[in-house]
Amino acid sequence: MPKVKIPRKSTLVDMTAMCDVAFLLLTFFMLTTKFKPDDPVIVDMPKSISQIKLPDSDIMEITVNKEGQVFYGIDGQYTRKKLLDKIGEKFNIQFTDRETYNFSLLSSFGVPISGLKAFLDMDVDQRKTEKEPGIPIDSTNNELAWWVIFGRLSNPNVRIAIRGDRETSYPVIKKIMDTLQSKNVNKFNLITNLEERPKI
Amino acid sequence: MAELDTSGGGKKKGKGQKHKAKKKSTRVDLTPMVDLAFLLVTFFMLTTTFSKPQTMEINMPVKDKEQKEQQAVKESKAMTIILGGNDKIYWYMGITNPQIDTTNYSANGMRKILLEKNREITDLVVLIKPTEEAKYKNVVDMLDEMDIVGVKRYALVDITPMELDLIKKLK
Predict the structure, then answer these.
(1) A27 to each of A33, A57, A84, B51, B159, how far by Cα in Å?
(2) Whether the model pTM is above 0.90
(3) How far is B34 from chain A (nearest CA, A)?
(4) Angle, to 10 degrees, between the axis of helix B31-47 and the axis of helix A16-32?
C-alpha cells in the first residue's frame, strides 16, 4: 500500500515579485532624489499664495537672515569655478586648485572677498563652525554687486532669487533690490512658502 | 517490449536511486534582499524633497533711465499704503492733502479696504511704501495682498519725508 501523502503546502511565498517592486521604487527614488544642499543659515520664509515654482537649475540665490547678513549662492560646479576665476582676476587674488575645488562645492557662502581665500582653505568641518559675517552690501563696498555681475557672466541664463527671513528689516532687502536694479536686473524672484488663497 | 521497457525503467530507477545527485533548487530566498531594498526605499523617500519652494516674481521698473518715460499717476486713482513698524499699515487716497488712516494685516483690515477701493475705482494704482521699520514679511504680505485682491497695478516706492512726518504725528 502506497502511503497517502498529504501534500503540505509550503508557507514560503515567492519573493521575486515583491523584490521587483521594491527595486523599482528604489530606482525611482534614487533618480528623483536631489539632496538638499546644507544652507548656511536658517531662514524662515514668509508665506504667499504665489504658485510659481522655482526652477531647479540656473539659480542665483541671495539669502538674507534675520540679522540682515547676506549670503550668496549659485548652482552648478562649472559655473562656480568660472565665477571664482573672474572674481580672482578682478580682485587680484590667486586661488589654488584646491581652493577652486572647494569653492565649486560651496552651495552658499557669506564671507567678504578679502576673507574668501582663508575661508576656502579651511576644512569642511572647520568651515561649518566658522561664523560667516555676510557679504558686504554697503554703498561704499558693495561686493554683492560684483558677485551678481560675474555670476551672470558665468551663467547668462541665471535667474536671481532672494530668500529672505520674515523678520529681516526692509532696508536690507531694499539695498539688495537697489543693487540688483543698479546692475540692470529688474526682474527677480522672492522665494516664499506656499499659503492657501484666502476666500474673499 | 515490456521487458525492455521495464528493464530500462528499472535501470533508470536503479541508477537514480544510487546516484541521485540531489537536484538543488535554483531558488534563492529573496526575503533579505527585499528587506534591504525597502530599507533603501525608505531612506530615499525620507530624504527626497519633493516640494520645491514657491516664488513670487516681481518686475521692477528700469531705474532712473529717463524720467520722461515714467507716468504720473492720476490723483483720483492713486492709493498709498505705508508699511510701518510693528505690523501697522497707514494708508490714504489721492496724492495731495492726504488723510491718513491706520489699519492692520488681517482680513478685515487692509484686505477689506483694498477690495472696496478696487471695486470703486477702475485701474486703481497702489503705491506701496515701506518704512525703515517695516519687515520683509510685511512687504511680501502686501505684495501678496495685491495678488489676492486682484489689484493689477502696484509698485514699490520709496517713502517721502513728508509722509514720514505725517506718520510721526499720528504716533
Answers:
(1) 10, 22, 36, 20, 55
(2) no
(3) 5
(4) 20
* CB-CB under 8 Å, B149 with A189: no
Look at residue A21 and tell me whether its pLDDT is greater than 60. yes
Domain boundaries, chain A: 47-194
Q: Choose between A58 and B98: higher pLDDT.
A: A58
Does A182 contact chain B (CB < 8 Å)? yes
Between CA A67 and CA A70 the distance in angstroms is: 9
Model confidence pLDDT, tens digit, residues A74-128: 888 888 888 888 888 888 888 888 888 888 888 888 888 888 888 888 877 777 7
The residue type found at B28 is V
Residue of B nearest to A36 (CA): B49
ipTM of this complex prediction, to 2 decimal places: 0.73
Check if A193 contacts B (Cβ < 8 Å). Answer: yes
For residue B16, the model assigns a pLDDT of: 47
The answer to whether residue A24 neighbours chain B at the CB level (below 8 Å) is no
Three-state SS at B12: helix
Q: What is the DSSP letter of B123?
A: T
CATH architecture of B74-170: 2-Layer Sandwich (3.30)
Residue B67's pLDDT is: 54
User: What is the SS3 string spanning chain A?
Assistant: CCCCCCCCCCCCCCCHHHHHHHHHHHHHHHHHCCCCCCCCCCCCCCEECCCEECCCCCEEEEEECCCCCEEEEECCHHHHHHHHHHHHHHHCCCCCHHHHHHHHCCCCECCCHHHHHHHHHCCHHHHHHCCCCCCCECCCCEHHHHHHHHHHHHCCCCEEEEEECCCCEHHHHHHHHHHHHHCCCCEEEEEEEECCCCCC
Gap from A4 CA to chain B (nearest CA, Å): 21
Instruction: Name every residue whose Cβ is closer than 8 Å to that of residue A122 and which is 6 or more positions away in sequence.
Output: A130
Please state the rounded mean pLDDT for residues B131-150: 84
